[in-house]
Amino acid sequence: MKICIIGAGNGGQALAAYLALKGFDVSLYNRSAWRIAPIMKTNKIKVEGEINATAEISFATTEIEKAMEGRQLLMVVLPAFAHREIAKKMSPYFEDGQIVVLNPGRTAGALEFYNSLKEEGVKKDIIIAEAQTFVFASRASNPGVVRIFRIKNAVPVAALPASRNNELEKTLLKVMPEFEIAPSTLHTSFNNIGAVFHPATIILNTGWVESTFGKFEFYFEGISQSVAKVLEAIDDERCQVAKRFGIEPMTAVQWLGYAYDVRGSNLYDAIHNNEGYRGIQAPTSLENRYILEDVPTSLVPISAFGKVVNVDTPIIDSVIRLASLMMGIDFFKEGRNFHRLHLENKTVEQIKHIMEVGE
Protein backbone atom coordinates (compact mmCIF):
# COMPACT_ATOMS: atom_id res chain seq x y z
CA MET A 1 0.00 0.00 0.00
CA LYS A 2 1.22 3.49 -0.86
CA ILE A 3 0.62 6.15 1.78
CA CYS A 4 0.85 9.93 1.69
CA ILE A 5 1.42 12.04 4.80
CA ILE A 6 0.10 15.59 4.47
CA GLY A 7 1.95 17.87 6.88
CA ALA A 8 5.52 17.58 8.19
CA GLY A 9 5.26 18.96 11.69
CA ASN A 10 6.20 16.78 14.63
CA GLY A 11 3.20 14.51 14.09
CA GLY A 12 3.60 14.18 10.34
CA GLN A 13 7.30 13.37 10.58
CA ALA A 14 6.65 10.84 13.34
CA LEU A 15 3.88 9.11 11.41
CA ALA A 16 5.85 9.07 8.15
CA ALA A 17 8.82 7.49 9.90
CA TYR A 18 6.69 4.99 11.81
CA LEU A 19 4.92 3.76 8.66
CA ALA A 20 8.16 3.64 6.66
CA LEU A 21 9.75 1.51 9.39
CA LYS A 22 6.79 -0.87 9.02
CA GLY A 23 7.70 -1.28 5.35
CA PHE A 24 5.17 0.97 3.65
CA ASP A 25 5.88 3.21 0.66
CA VAL A 26 5.49 6.70 2.19
CA SER A 27 5.47 10.13 0.58
CA LEU A 28 5.61 13.27 2.74
CA TYR A 29 4.13 16.64 1.75
CA ASN A 30 4.70 20.03 3.36
CA ARG A 31 3.80 23.40 1.86
CA SER A 32 7.07 25.06 2.95
CA ALA A 33 10.43 23.62 1.98
CA TRP A 34 12.41 24.74 5.02
CA ARG A 35 10.70 22.23 7.31
CA ILE A 36 11.49 19.27 5.07
CA ALA A 37 14.67 20.41 3.31
CA PRO A 38 16.92 17.83 5.08
CA ILE A 39 14.37 15.08 4.41
CA MET A 40 14.09 16.06 0.73
CA LYS A 41 17.85 15.59 0.42
CA THR A 42 18.20 12.28 2.26
CA ASN A 43 14.64 10.80 2.44
CA LYS A 44 15.50 9.95 6.04
CA ILE A 45 13.85 10.74 9.39
CA LYS A 46 15.50 9.92 12.69
CA VAL A 47 13.15 8.70 15.41
CA GLU A 48 13.95 8.81 19.13
CA GLY A 49 12.13 7.89 22.33
CA GLU A 50 9.67 5.00 22.18
CA ILE A 51 11.38 3.95 18.94
CA ASN A 52 15.05 4.50 18.16
CA ALA A 53 15.73 4.12 14.45
CA THR A 54 16.30 5.95 11.21
CA ALA A 55 13.47 5.56 8.72
CA GLU A 56 13.74 5.99 4.96
CA ILE A 57 10.65 7.30 3.21
CA SER A 58 10.10 7.27 -0.57
CA PHE A 59 10.29 11.04 -0.99
CA ALA A 60 9.38 14.39 0.52
CA THR A 61 7.97 17.21 -1.59
CA THR A 62 6.27 20.60 -1.62
CA GLU A 63 4.18 19.52 -4.63
CA ILE A 64 0.89 18.18 -3.33
CA GLU A 65 -0.15 16.58 -6.63
CA LYS A 66 3.05 14.55 -6.69
CA ALA A 67 2.63 13.52 -3.05
CA MET A 68 -0.97 12.34 -3.57
CA GLU A 69 -0.59 10.58 -6.91
CA GLY A 70 -1.28 6.85 -6.71
CA ARG A 71 -1.57 6.87 -2.90
CA GLN A 72 -4.42 4.83 -1.46
CA LEU A 73 -4.22 6.27 2.05
CA LEU A 74 -3.88 10.02 2.66
CA MET A 75 -3.05 10.81 6.28
CA VAL A 76 -3.65 14.50 7.01
CA VAL A 77 -1.51 15.47 10.01
CA LEU A 78 -2.12 19.20 10.33
CA PRO A 79 -3.66 21.46 12.97
CA ALA A 80 -7.42 21.23 12.57
CA PHE A 81 -7.72 24.93 11.71
CA ALA A 82 -5.97 24.07 8.41
CA HIS A 83 -8.46 21.38 7.35
CA ARG A 84 -10.60 23.67 5.23
CA GLU A 85 -7.61 25.13 3.39
CA ILE A 86 -5.90 21.78 2.79
CA ALA A 87 -9.18 20.24 1.55
CA LYS A 88 -9.39 22.92 -1.12
CA LYS A 89 -5.72 22.48 -2.02
CA MET A 90 -6.09 18.70 -2.35
CA SER A 91 -9.42 18.83 -4.19
CA PRO A 92 -8.13 18.89 -7.82
CA TYR A 93 -5.93 15.84 -7.30
CA PHE A 94 -8.13 13.21 -5.67
CA GLU A 95 -8.42 9.79 -7.28
CA ASP A 96 -11.26 7.29 -6.95
CA GLY A 97 -10.76 4.90 -4.04
CA GLN A 98 -8.56 7.13 -1.90
CA ILE A 99 -9.10 7.35 1.86
CA VAL A 100 -8.44 10.57 3.78
CA VAL A 101 -7.87 10.32 7.53
CA LEU A 102 -7.75 13.52 9.62
CA ASN A 103 -5.21 12.96 12.42
CA PRO A 104 -7.00 14.24 14.42
CA GLY A 105 -10.27 15.74 13.25
CA ARG A 106 -10.99 17.49 16.57
CA THR A 107 -14.74 18.27 16.66
CA ALA A 108 -16.65 18.03 13.35
CA GLY A 109 -13.44 17.96 11.32
CA ALA A 110 -14.70 15.36 8.85
CA LEU A 111 -17.86 17.39 8.30
CA GLU A 112 -15.88 20.57 7.60
CA PHE A 113 -13.61 18.67 5.19
CA TYR A 114 -16.63 17.06 3.51
CA ASN A 115 -18.34 20.44 3.09
CA SER A 116 -15.17 21.97 1.64
CA LEU A 117 -14.87 19.24 -1.01
CA LYS A 118 -18.54 19.62 -1.83
CA GLU A 119 -18.04 23.36 -2.34
CA GLU A 120 -15.13 22.61 -4.66
CA GLY A 121 -17.29 20.23 -6.71
CA VAL A 122 -15.20 17.11 -6.03
CA LYS A 123 -16.94 14.09 -7.57
CA LYS A 124 -14.34 11.41 -6.91
CA ASP A 125 -15.28 8.35 -4.86
CA ILE A 126 -13.28 8.96 -1.68
CA ILE A 127 -13.74 8.21 2.01
CA ILE A 128 -13.19 10.91 4.64
CA ALA A 129 -12.40 9.72 8.16
CA GLU A 130 -11.85 11.47 11.46
CA ALA A 131 -9.51 10.23 14.20
CA GLN A 132 -10.45 11.20 17.76
CA THR A 133 -6.87 12.12 18.65
CA PHE A 134 -3.36 11.72 17.27
CA VAL A 135 -1.83 8.30 17.78
CA PHE A 136 1.46 9.59 19.21
CA ALA A 137 2.60 11.99 21.88
CA SER A 138 5.51 13.40 19.88
CA ARG A 139 7.73 16.43 19.33
CA ALA A 140 10.16 17.35 16.54
CA SER A 141 13.48 18.69 17.81
CA ASN A 142 14.82 19.51 14.31
CA PRO A 143 13.66 18.91 10.73
CA GLY A 144 14.23 15.22 10.18
CA VAL A 145 14.54 14.40 13.88
CA VAL A 146 11.46 13.51 15.94
CA ARG A 147 10.83 12.06 19.39
CA ILE A 148 7.88 9.76 20.08
CA PHE A 149 7.16 9.93 23.82
CA ARG A 150 4.36 7.38 23.71
CA ILE A 151 2.24 5.43 21.23
CA LYS A 152 -1.38 5.33 22.35
CA ASN A 153 -2.96 1.92 22.83
CA ALA A 154 -6.00 2.73 20.74
CA VAL A 155 -7.46 5.65 18.79
CA PRO A 156 -11.11 5.71 17.67
CA VAL A 157 -11.70 6.64 14.03
CA ALA A 158 -14.89 6.88 11.98
CA ALA A 159 -15.81 7.45 8.35
CA LEU A 160 -18.16 10.05 6.98
CA PRO A 161 -20.54 8.62 5.92
CA ALA A 162 -20.54 5.95 8.62
CA SER A 163 -21.82 3.42 6.07
CA ARG A 164 -18.24 3.24 4.76
CA ASN A 165 -16.71 2.19 8.07
CA ASN A 166 -16.20 -1.37 6.81
CA GLU A 167 -14.11 -0.14 3.88
CA LEU A 168 -12.15 2.12 6.20
CA GLU A 169 -11.49 -0.76 8.59
CA LYS A 170 -10.23 -3.12 5.88
CA THR A 171 -7.63 -0.61 4.72
CA LEU A 172 -6.64 1.40 7.78
CA LEU A 173 -6.25 -1.43 10.28
CA LYS A 174 -3.87 -3.23 7.93
CA VAL A 175 -1.62 -0.21 8.27
CA MET A 176 -2.13 0.71 11.93
CA PRO A 177 -3.91 -1.73 14.24
CA GLU A 178 -3.83 1.02 16.89
CA PHE A 179 -6.93 2.46 15.24
CA GLU A 180 -10.34 1.28 16.40
CA ILE A 181 -13.46 1.86 14.30
CA ALA A 182 -16.09 4.02 16.05
CA PRO A 183 -19.76 3.99 15.01
CA SER A 184 -19.72 7.50 13.52
CA THR A 185 -18.03 10.90 13.66
CA LEU A 186 -20.46 11.81 16.44
CA HIS A 187 -18.37 9.54 18.67
CA THR A 188 -14.97 10.83 17.57
CA SER A 189 -16.07 14.49 17.69
CA PHE A 190 -17.64 14.39 21.15
CA ASN A 191 -14.79 12.34 22.60
CA ASN A 192 -12.29 15.04 21.65
CA ILE A 193 -10.06 15.01 24.72
CA GLY A 194 -7.78 17.76 23.40
CA ALA A 195 -10.64 20.13 24.15
CA VAL A 196 -10.29 19.22 27.81
CA PHE A 197 -6.52 19.08 28.32
CA HIS A 198 -5.05 21.85 26.18
CA PRO A 199 -6.73 25.30 26.09
CA ALA A 200 -7.55 25.82 29.77
CA THR A 201 -4.19 24.46 30.90
CA ILE A 202 -2.18 26.89 28.82
CA ILE A 203 -4.43 29.86 29.64
CA LEU A 204 -4.18 29.15 33.37
CA ASN A 205 -0.40 28.95 32.95
CA THR A 206 -0.04 32.03 30.74
CA GLY A 207 2.27 33.87 33.12
CA TRP A 208 4.58 30.88 33.36
CA VAL A 209 4.57 30.31 29.59
CA GLU A 210 5.40 33.93 28.80
CA SER A 211 8.01 34.42 31.53
CA THR A 212 9.89 31.15 30.97
CA PHE A 213 9.16 30.59 27.26
CA GLY A 214 7.57 27.28 28.16
CA LYS A 215 10.42 25.85 30.20
CA PHE A 216 8.26 23.57 32.30
CA GLU A 217 6.56 20.22 31.82
CA PHE A 218 3.11 20.98 30.43
CA TYR A 219 1.22 18.08 32.00
CA PHE A 220 3.21 17.33 35.13
CA GLU A 221 3.89 20.91 36.25
CA GLY A 222 1.21 22.85 34.40
CA ILE A 223 -1.70 20.73 35.64
CA SER A 224 -1.86 21.33 39.38
CA GLN A 225 -4.71 20.19 41.63
CA SER A 226 -6.62 23.44 41.00
CA VAL A 227 -6.04 23.42 37.24
CA ALA A 228 -7.25 19.82 37.13
CA LYS A 229 -10.54 20.89 38.75
CA VAL A 230 -11.13 23.32 35.89
CA LEU A 231 -10.35 20.57 33.38
CA GLU A 232 -12.83 18.26 35.13
CA ALA A 233 -15.52 20.94 34.80
CA ILE A 234 -14.81 21.29 31.07
CA ASP A 235 -14.88 17.53 30.74
CA ASP A 236 -18.25 17.37 32.49
CA GLU A 237 -19.73 19.97 30.13
CA ARG A 238 -18.41 18.06 27.11
CA CYS A 239 -19.88 14.81 28.39
CA GLN A 240 -23.27 16.39 29.10
CA VAL A 241 -23.47 17.68 25.51
CA ALA A 242 -22.48 14.27 24.13
CA LYS A 243 -25.14 12.49 26.17
CA ARG A 244 -27.84 14.79 24.85
CA PHE A 245 -26.83 13.70 21.35
CA GLY A 246 -27.21 10.06 22.34
CA ILE A 247 -23.49 9.38 22.76
CA GLU A 248 -22.13 7.69 25.87
CA PRO A 249 -18.81 9.52 26.19
CA MET A 250 -15.57 8.48 27.79
CA THR A 251 -14.62 10.80 30.63
CA ALA A 252 -11.09 12.16 30.50
CA VAL A 253 -10.09 9.75 33.29
CA GLN A 254 -11.59 6.81 31.38
CA TRP A 255 -9.83 7.92 28.21
CA LEU A 256 -6.44 7.98 29.94
CA GLY A 257 -7.03 4.37 30.94
CA TYR A 258 -8.14 3.48 27.41
CA ALA A 259 -5.27 5.21 25.59
CA TYR A 260 -2.41 4.86 28.08
CA ASP A 261 -3.38 2.17 30.62
CA VAL A 262 -3.18 4.64 33.51
CA ARG A 263 -5.60 4.94 36.39
CA GLY A 264 -6.48 7.54 38.97
CA SER A 265 -9.26 8.39 41.40
CA ASN A 266 -9.52 11.83 39.76
CA LEU A 267 -8.14 13.61 36.71
CA TYR A 268 -5.13 15.05 38.51
CA ASP A 269 -3.99 11.63 39.69
CA ALA A 270 -4.60 9.98 36.31
CA ILE A 271 -2.60 12.61 34.42
CA HIS A 272 0.26 12.45 36.91
CA ASN A 273 0.31 8.65 36.70
CA ASN A 274 0.88 8.83 32.93
CA GLU A 275 4.58 8.42 32.19
CA GLY A 276 3.75 8.95 28.51
CA TYR A 277 3.50 12.67 29.31
CA ARG A 278 6.88 12.76 31.04
CA GLY A 279 9.24 15.24 29.38
CA ILE A 280 6.65 17.02 27.22
CA GLN A 281 7.46 20.70 27.53
CA ALA A 282 4.96 23.53 27.43
CA PRO A 283 4.64 25.65 24.28
CA THR A 284 7.04 28.58 24.13
CA SER A 285 4.27 31.14 23.60
CA LEU A 286 0.48 31.44 23.34
CA GLU A 287 0.86 31.35 19.54
CA ASN A 288 0.47 27.59 19.38
CA ARG A 289 -2.01 24.90 18.50
CA TYR A 290 -3.24 24.42 22.09
CA ILE A 291 -5.05 27.71 21.62
CA LEU A 292 -5.12 28.35 17.86
CA GLU A 293 -6.33 24.81 17.10
CA ASP A 294 -8.15 23.56 20.17
CA VAL A 295 -10.19 26.67 20.92
CA PRO A 296 -11.73 27.27 17.46
CA THR A 297 -12.02 23.64 16.34
CA SER A 298 -12.80 21.95 19.67
CA LEU A 299 -14.34 24.26 22.25
CA VAL A 300 -16.30 26.48 19.83
CA PRO A 301 -18.19 23.61 18.16
CA ILE A 302 -18.83 21.85 21.49
CA SER A 303 -20.33 25.11 22.81
CA ALA A 304 -22.46 25.39 19.66
CA PHE A 305 -23.69 21.80 19.95
CA GLY A 306 -24.51 22.48 23.61
CA LYS A 307 -26.81 25.38 22.73
CA VAL A 308 -28.86 23.14 20.40
CA VAL A 309 -29.57 20.66 23.22
CA ASN A 310 -29.95 23.32 25.95
CA VAL A 311 -26.78 22.33 27.82
CA ASP A 312 -25.03 25.31 29.36
CA THR A 313 -21.25 25.35 28.92
CA PRO A 314 -20.14 28.28 31.11
CA ILE A 315 -16.59 27.05 31.74
CA ILE A 316 -15.97 26.21 28.09
CA ASP A 317 -17.40 29.58 27.06
CA SER A 318 -15.19 31.37 29.60
CA VAL A 319 -12.07 29.72 28.19
CA ILE A 320 -13.12 30.73 24.66
CA ARG A 321 -13.65 34.34 25.79
CA LEU A 322 -10.31 34.49 27.59
CA ALA A 323 -8.50 33.02 24.59
CA SER A 324 -10.25 35.49 22.29
CA LEU A 325 -9.18 38.40 24.50
CA MET A 326 -5.58 37.21 24.78
CA MET A 327 -5.13 36.48 21.08
CA GLY A 328 -7.20 39.34 19.67
CA ILE A 329 -9.38 36.89 17.74
CA ASP A 330 -13.12 36.39 18.11
CA PHE A 331 -13.02 32.62 18.21
CA PHE A 332 -16.81 32.34 18.48
CA LYS A 333 -17.00 34.10 15.12
CA GLU A 334 -13.91 32.63 13.45
CA GLY A 335 -14.09 29.05 14.75
CA ARG A 336 -16.15 26.03 13.72
CA ASN A 337 -19.47 27.60 14.54
CA PHE A 338 -22.73 26.35 13.07
CA HIS A 339 -22.58 28.82 10.19
CA ARG A 340 -19.21 27.42 9.08
CA LEU A 341 -20.43 23.84 9.55
CA HIS A 342 -23.67 24.49 7.64
CA LEU A 343 -25.69 23.42 10.70
CA GLU A 344 -27.63 26.62 11.35
CA ASN A 345 -31.32 26.13 12.12
CA LYS A 346 -30.97 22.34 12.14
CA THR A 347 -32.75 20.16 14.68
CA VAL A 348 -30.92 17.67 16.88
CA GLU A 349 -32.05 14.78 14.70
CA GLN A 350 -30.98 16.57 11.54
CA ILE A 351 -27.55 17.29 13.03
CA LYS A 352 -27.13 13.66 14.09
CA HIS A 353 -28.06 12.55 10.57
CA ILE A 354 -25.58 14.97 8.97
CA MET A 355 -22.77 13.89 11.30
CA GLU A 356 -23.44 10.27 10.33
CA VAL A 357 -24.04 10.53 6.57
CA GLY A 358 -22.70 13.97 5.57
CA GLU A 359 -25.92 15.23 3.97
Average pLDDT level: 96
Please estimate the helix content.
Answer: 40-55%
| CATH class division of the largest domain | Alpha Beta
Count of distinct structural domains: 2
Largest sheet geometry: 8 strands, mixed
Q: Per DSSP, what share of the residues sits in E-state strands of 2 or more residues? A: 15-25%
The largest sheet has its strands arranged as: 5-2-1-6-7-8-11-12
Shape: globular
CATH architecture of the largest domain: 3-Layer(aba) Sandwich
CATH topology title of the largest domain = Rossmann fold
Give Rg in angstroms. Answer: 19 Å
| End-to-end distance | 30 Å
Order of helices and strands: EHEHEEEHEHEHEEEEHEHHHHHHHHHHHH
Number of strands: 12
Classification by helices and strands: alpha/beta
What report would you give on this structure?
- It is a single chain.
- This protein is α/β, with parallel strands linked by helices.
- 44% of the residues lie in helices and 16% in strands.
- The chain has 2 domains: 2-189, Rossmann fold; 194-357, N-(1-d-carboxylethyl)-l-norvaline Dehydrogenase, domain 2 (Orthogonal Bundle).
- It contains 18 helices and 12 strands.
- It has an 8-stranded mixed sheet with strand order 5-2-1-6-7-8-11-12, sandwiched between helices. It has a 4-stranded mixed sheet with strand order 4-3-10-9.
- Helix 1 links the parallel strand 1 (2-6) and strand 2.
- Helix 4 packs parallel to helix 5.
- The longest helix is centred in the middle third of the chain and has 20 residues, at 225-244.
- The chain starts with a strand and ends with a helix.
- The relative contact order is 0.11.
- The mean pLDDT is 96.
